[in-house]
Every structure is written in structure tokens, then in C-alpha cells.
């Protein structure tokens, strides 16, 4: 067997440490990690080694499940057993590359680790541009090695043998022929053309580690998509090639595929992605990656329900793929199925708890994947808030507080930039369900700057609570404390997925001032503030869950109705139901508007709305008496 090229060789100590980690990963992989049975049919230099095939299959399923770090280690295990499975090199490179949720400046400015150039793969940061570059380079180098090897084989190595006396030159005995066949069986084969072209395209994406983040789209992102398009045109029925093309274009347009809520495509890329995914799904309807991307494509579109068939496969076929189980809930909230949103995020949480137990190094608190774990909790609480499920919402929020809390951030302060915003979910639940007196008893963090979003959320909630309870001056004091926190420079650098804390708190500030003005009796000022807050909420970057978890239209519509502005209140609730179908808060508000109008033309609609509300409130977690559109309103 030929020598395996590894680029820059790691030190002996690094090699030993890396081998120990790899041994641990192999043990983890042998656990009962059920990601379905999907298998890429033909993979060069793999099928003669059953154990290598098992690691490759696991790696591919993990990669398609967006568990990229664990996937890369499974592919490394495959390569240790089958070093000329060059597709494993390419997929390791992809695992370390941009994806739909981690792309652009955020990716390129945080993954350029020069020390990784000489580090063993398993000692490198994840993800790492240097590791992506190394493995895509190894892939194309090994392809060329194999081509040279087979060119030499076809010419007999460039030497002509002299036959024995009495025999023709070049003849061989039966033993020699058998030995030759055995050697050929062990010799790595040429890489298929489809793989070679796919790997060449991946090399385009990963060959410039350290690329300027502002120029990355022009230098590597768009050229990669263009290269993938050429590969796809030649192999349109290959599921991984279709997936890579779709993802390459989606990464360039992440969370900006359609205008929301109009559903108008932002660019021709969106139209192309839809054509590629829908064609591929007709051939491979259960492919995890294709279904995953189709959900993301559909959620911003005018017709999110088109993804429901893909959702059905993601729910059923991948028992331990937490992120795939979660993904259909992006569609659930858009079609008004809040019970499914809560149920499947809870199942996703269970799956991810299993992953955290099996592989704490790749799914634990310090791992990249942990961001997906907390997202499950976030989405479950969002569904509970919209669906009027107080008990379940609070239960899930408190579970997350065990994982994400001030003690954790004190130990790992560098995680605050993208995880601290998840530490205030129970505050959102208490606001939604009007637990005003309980909110006044919630303690502030010991370090408000470390726990900036939680501290600001508590101040915001106290201001709302005091206003609702009639303590207007105290509410104003809380609003001032809130403004001090929201103006902290760090708010600009903390995120809740697609939005900054600065932008989220700016919306809260306007809403809070509107609520206080309302309690002072300054109704027009209050309504103008709340209208402005609604507009600001609508202009936040698209996200699921929405950056502001409680729709401000519920407060605006409810308070307008309370002051007799029935027509505007009706419009507000109708607009909200377009964005959040079947949610009980807007249903209650709209029904009251139509009842007050008292016209016969509304009677049929009122009956239908009441039936929708009744059905929604029969859900197993629908425990709250939704009597008003917002708990800041007065109950009759």
C-alpha cells in the first residue's frame, strides 16, 4: 500500500493524543446512535472494508443532520481504515466549511486559526478553515496519485520482463496470476468521475484559508456554487451533488431567500434552489439533507405548507438527529400547529440529550452543536407562548435554565455572545401569561453586564408589570434602568441567532414606553409608540422563532379594542393571524371585534373563528384561559 500523504506532519505527541481521541470517537460511534439507514450507494475505495463503510455512513448521516463536528470525526475514523476513500476527505472539508446557519463574516472572521496548520486534526478548533483546506487538498492529491498509479499499471510499470527459456516473454504461472489478482484486489481503485468533480468543486470553496471575510463570496462562495452547478448538470440525479449545489446557493442567500411576508424571491438563486430541491426530492424524497434545505427554503416563502411532506420524513426517519426532528417545527408555527411545534421540539431535546451523553466533546456546552441544542428549547417555548400553553412553556424554560445560567457564563464568558440570550426564556413566558407580581420577585443577575440580556429582560418585564399594576412612576424608574442596560456597547455584539441584542432591546424600549403611556391615560401617544414597535418588530431580520417572542400586535390590538377603536383593532388582529395562523390570542381579539360590530355578515365568520379557537384550546398542553389578546388588557 502506498504512503498516505498528510501535508504537514503533526508531532509524535500530537499524533498520540489525536489517536487517543480517535479511539474515543470510535467507541462513541459504536453506541446505539440511530440516524436512520441512509447510505450513499457507490463510494470509491470503501466497499471492501465493512468497518470503514460503517464509519463513512455514520459520518454522512451526521453531516446531513448538521452534527458537523461529530461527522468529521467519523470520517477521520473511516480514513484511518480506508485512507484512499477520498470522498471522506472532501466531506471533512465541508464539515469545516460555511453552512446555512454559520456563514459570511461570522464564519470567516472566527474560523481562521493559523496554529491549526501544524496541528493534528483532532486538536484543532472546530470549525477550522485550515482543516478544510488540508482535507480538500489531500482529496485532490490522492485522486492524482491514484491516476498515476493506474497509468503505471496499464503500461506494466514502464518495464518489460524477460521470459524464462522456452516460454514467451510476459507469460506467468498460475501462482503468479493469483498473486497478481490478490495485489489488484488490495490496490486502491480510481475515483469515480462524479466524486472527482465534486471534490474539485469543494476544493474551490476551501482553498483560500484566511480569505478576507468581505471578499469571501466573490473569491470562494460564488465560484464554489458555479462549480457545483457544472457538476450537477452532469450528475443531476446524484443526491449529495444536488444537496451541495442547493446548500452552496442557500449559504450565499442565508435567511434572505424571499421577501417576508410577501414571498417574493430575492434573487434568481432562490428560483434555482427550488428547482434543484424539488427535482431531487422526487427522486430521493427521504434524503435528510434535501428535506432539511427544503424546509429552510419554504419557511420564508408564501407557501410554507409545501414543505410538510419533507417534514414528515424528518420527524419519522432520524430518531437521534435532534436538529432534523426540530426542523419541521419551523413550518409548524407558520401553519398554526403550535402543539406539534412543542411536541417535536421536546423530542428533539431528548435526542440531543442523548447526543450530549454519547459525545460530550461534540454536543456538550462548549461544542458548536450546543447552539442547536438550546435552539430546540427556544422554539418549544415560542410554540407554547403562541399556543397558550403556560405550564409546558415554563417547564421547558426552567429546564434550559439548568443548562444555560450565570454560573455557566461565569465559567465560560466567551459563550455569552451567542448563548446568553437564551437565559431569559422563563421571563418571556411570565410576560406572555401576565404573571406580574411573580415577575417583580425575580432576582436580577449578580453580574448584570455578564448577563446583559437576562438583566435587561427582567427590567423590561418589571416595567410592564408595574405599569399593568398601576405603579406608573415605579414603571418609569424600571424603564430608565432598562435603557441603561440596552445602551451597553456589548449589546451590539451579542446575538439571538439572526438579530443583535441591541436591535431586540430597541423594540422592547418602544413597547415599554407605549405601555407606560397607556397607563398614564395618554392613549394616542401610547398607540403611536405601540404602532412603531410593531413596525420595528416586523423589520427585524427573519428568524424562527421571531426575535421578539410575543407579537406586539396582541398588545396594540387589545388596547385599541379596550378604548373602542374596533376597526383598527380588527385590522391588527387580521394582520397578526396572517403571520401566526390560529393563535388563540389574536383569535380572541378578532372574535370580540366582530361581536362588537354586531353585523349579520360577521356571524358565519364568528362561528368559524370560534370553532378554530375551540379546536386549538383542546390541545393537551393548552392550559391557559385565553380571555384577552394580551394580559396587559383588562379582563371583562
Automatic annotation (TrEMBL):
Keyword field: TPR repeat
PANTHER family: TPR DOMAIN-CONTAINING PROTEIN, WW DOMAIN-CONTAINING PROTEIN
Gene3D superfamilies in the cross-refs: Tetratricopeptide repeat domain
Positions with biased composition (Basic residues): 149-168
The keyword Ribosomal protein belongs to this UniProt entry's keyword annotation: no
Residues in TPR repeats: 550-583
Protein name as it appears in the record: Uncharacterized protein
Annotated Basic and acidic residues bias: 173-182
Lineage: Eukaryota, Sar, Stramenopiles, Ochrophyta, Bacillariophyta
Protein species of origin: Fistulifera solaris
Chain residue ranges for the region called Disordered: 149-189
Keyword Zinc-finger applies: no
InterPro entries assigned to the protein according to its UniProt record, in alphabetical order: TPR-like_helical_dom_sf (IPR011990), TPR_rpt (IPR019734)
Amino acid at each position: 500500500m502506498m504512503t498516505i500523504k498528510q501535508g504537514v506532519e503533526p508531532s509524535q505527541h500530537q499524533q498520540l493524543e489525536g489517536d487517543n481521541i480517535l479511539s474515543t470517537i470510535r467507541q462513541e460511534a459504536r453506541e446505539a446512535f440511530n440516524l436512520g439507514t441512509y447510505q450513499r450507494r457507490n463510494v470509491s475505495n470503501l466497499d471492501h472494508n465493512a468497518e470503514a463503510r460503517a464509519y463513512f455512513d455514520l459520518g454522512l448521516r451526521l453531516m446531513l443532520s448538521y452534527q458537523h463536528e461529530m461527522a468529521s470525526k467519523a470520517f477521520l475514523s473511516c480514513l484511518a481504515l480506508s485512507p484512499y476513500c477520498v470522498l471522506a476527505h472532501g466531506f471533512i472539508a465541508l464539515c469545516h466549511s460555511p453552512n446555512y446557519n454559520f456563514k459570511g463574516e461570522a464564519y470567516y472572521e472566527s474560523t481562521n486559526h493559523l496554529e491549526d496548520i501544524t496541528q493534528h486534526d483532532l486538536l484543532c478548533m472546530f470549525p477550522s478553515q485550515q482543516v478544510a483546506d488540508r482535507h480538500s487538498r489531500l482529496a485532490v492529491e490522492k485522486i492524482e496519485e491514484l491516476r498515476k498509479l493506474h497509468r503505471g499499471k496499464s503500461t506494466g510499470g514502464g518495464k518489460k520482463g524477460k521470459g524464462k527459456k522456452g516460454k514467451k516473454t510476459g507469460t506467468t504461472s498460475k501462482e503468479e496470476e493469483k498473486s497478481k489478482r490478490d495485489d489488484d484486489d488490495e490496490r486502491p481503485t480510481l475515483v469515480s468521475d462524479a466524486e472527482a468533480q465534486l471534490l474539485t468543486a469543494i476544493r474551490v470553496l476551501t482553498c483560500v484559508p484566511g480569505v478576507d471575510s468581505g471578499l469571501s463570496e466573490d473569491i470562494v462562495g460564488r465560484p464554489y456554487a458555479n462549480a457545483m452547478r457544472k457538476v450537477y448538470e452532469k450528475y443531476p440525479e446524484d443526491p449529495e451533488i444536488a444537496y451541495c449545489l442547493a446548500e452552496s446557493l442557500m449559504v450565499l442567500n442565508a435567511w434572505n431567500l424571499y421577501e417576508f411576508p410577501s414571498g417574493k424571491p430575492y434573487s434568481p438563486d432562490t428560483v434555482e434552489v427550488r428547482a434543484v430541491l424539488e427535482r431531487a426530492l422526487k427522486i430521493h424524497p427521504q434524503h435528510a439533507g434535501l428535506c432539511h434545505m427544503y424546509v429552510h427554503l419554504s419557511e420564508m416563502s408564501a407557501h410554507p405548507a409545501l414543505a410538510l411532506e419533507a417534514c414528515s420524513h424528518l420527524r419519522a426517519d432520524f430518531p437521534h438527529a435532534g436538529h432534523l426532528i426540530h426542523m419541521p417545527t419551523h413550518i409548524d408555527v407558520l401553519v398554526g400547529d403550535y402543539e406539534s411545534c412543542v411536541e417535536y421540539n421536546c423530542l428533539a431535546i431528548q435526542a440531543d440529550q442523548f447526543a450530549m451523553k454519547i459525545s460530550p466533546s461534540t454536543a456538550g456546552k462548549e461544542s458548536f452543536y450546543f447552539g442547536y441544542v438550546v435552539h430546540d428549547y427556544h422554539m418549544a417555548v415560542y410554540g407554547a407562548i403562541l399556543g397558550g400553553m403556560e405550564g409546558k412553556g415554563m417547564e421547558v424554560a426552567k429546564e434550559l435554565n439548568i443548562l444555560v445560567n450565570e454560573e455557566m457564563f461565569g465559567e465560560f464568558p466567551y459563550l455569552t455572545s451567542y448563548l446568553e440570550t437564551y437565559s431569559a426564556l422563563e421571563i418571556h413566558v411570565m410576560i406572555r401569561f401576565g404573571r406580574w407580581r411573580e415577575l417583580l420577585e425575580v432576582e436580577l443577575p449578580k453580574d448584570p453586564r455578564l448577563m446583559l440580556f437576562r438583566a435587561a429582560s427582567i427590567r423590561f418585564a418589571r416595567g410592564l408589570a408595574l405599569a399593568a399594576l398601576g405603579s406608573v412612576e415605579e414603571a418609569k424608574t424600571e424603564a430608565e434602568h432598562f435603557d441603561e442596560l440596552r445602551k451597553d456597547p456589548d449589546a451590539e455584539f451579542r446575538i439571538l441567532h439572526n438579530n443583535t441584542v441591541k436591535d431586540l432591546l430597541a423594540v422592547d424600549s418602544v413597547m415599554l414606553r407605549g405601555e407606560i403611556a397607556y397607563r398614564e391615560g395618554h392613549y394616542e401617544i401610547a398607540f403611536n409608540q405601540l404602532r412603531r414597535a410593531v413596525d420595528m418588530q416586523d423589520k427585524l431580520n427573519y428568524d424562527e422563532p421571531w426575535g421578539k417572542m410575543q407579537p406586539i400586535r396582541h398588545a396594540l390590538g387589545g388596547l385599541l379594542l379596550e378604548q373602542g377603536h374596533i376597526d383598527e383593532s380588527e385590522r391588527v388582529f387580521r394582520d397578526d393571524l396572517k403571520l401566526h395562523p390560529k393563535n388563540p390570542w389574536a383569535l380572541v381579539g378578532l372574535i370580540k371585534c366582530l361581536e362588537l360590530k354586531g353585523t349579520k355578515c360577521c356571524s358565519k365568520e364568528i362561528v368559524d373563528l370560534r370553532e378554530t379557537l375551540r379546536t386549538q384550546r383542546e390541545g393537551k398542553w393548552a392550559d391557559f384561559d385565553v380571555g384577552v389578546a394580551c394580559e396587559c388588557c383588562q379582563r371583562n
